[in-house]
Design brief:
alpha/beta
Length: 333
Amino acid sequence: MLNDFHKHRMELFACDATKDFALKVVEQMNRMKSPDEPETHLGKLEISRFSDGEFQPAFTESIRGATCFILQSTYPSADNLMELLLTIDAAKRASANKVIAVIPYFGWARQDRKDRPRVSIGAKVVANMLRAVGTDSVMVCDLHADQIQGFFDFPVNHLYAAIDFISILKKIQVECGNTLTIAAPDMGGAKRANAYAKRLHCPVVICHKTRARANVVERIQPIGEVEGRDIVIIDDIIDTAGTLTAAANELVKRGAKSVRAFATHAVLSGPAYERIEASSLTEVYVTDTIPLSKDPEKVKLQGKFRVVSLAETFARMILKVYNYEPISGEFPL
């Protein structure tokens, strides 16, 4: 699993928001190791929290000279991002040889351009902050826009949930026969939907969306053959689920046999759970880059959800990056 010539030991750490996911990654890494190699363990990182809301990460073991992978998704609140930044800073000050930020969900990615006057470009700001604290490289999954990689002045390892989604979609395709159709919930997702459709050799439907205001969909107009089709909507993020559920309801209204959804990042803010439960969607596949809510009221509304773990994919990619191996063969689309 590990190259003999590697001079710097590997250490893995997890901030609070991604600790459960990190434990699954470590478990997968240990399954991949050869019998004569030692087991990988999650390193000891403590987060001291103060009464005023401040917090301070501290490593309780030596990381001098180590290659450190620090796992943390930066979904709201902003504390998750700040925790990651402070942890990277602590690692650099503790003389780590290299610090790689593993960010399964990269928050602020939707702020990737000036879409109206006098607004910030949040994705660039976050990239600058990661550089400022000394990050050597980042590992992310399904960025909202591929060009965000250009905001970083150091290497970006971009993973895709399609590695895991495609195998599930092929099984659904066998069940549906020749009626499977891939759909994009809006024009922005057309490229992603086309890539999936090309891999699965099936047709595409594009949903043209107009918004009344942010997070509020005014109208959905599907473009393509819908009647009698088993449709799978592909997206990178489910936030309030307004677009997703409006698209699903409109597709069923126009004669679709069934509508499923596949989305990498389950942000699920506001009324998302309620909307999905009340919608025409039969199944919603998401990954574990963001954990589903543990609120008892939200748990009751998770009957349509199917969680696909990306732990094995991240474990494999971390080992490849650590061992200086290429990852270009991992691009499924």
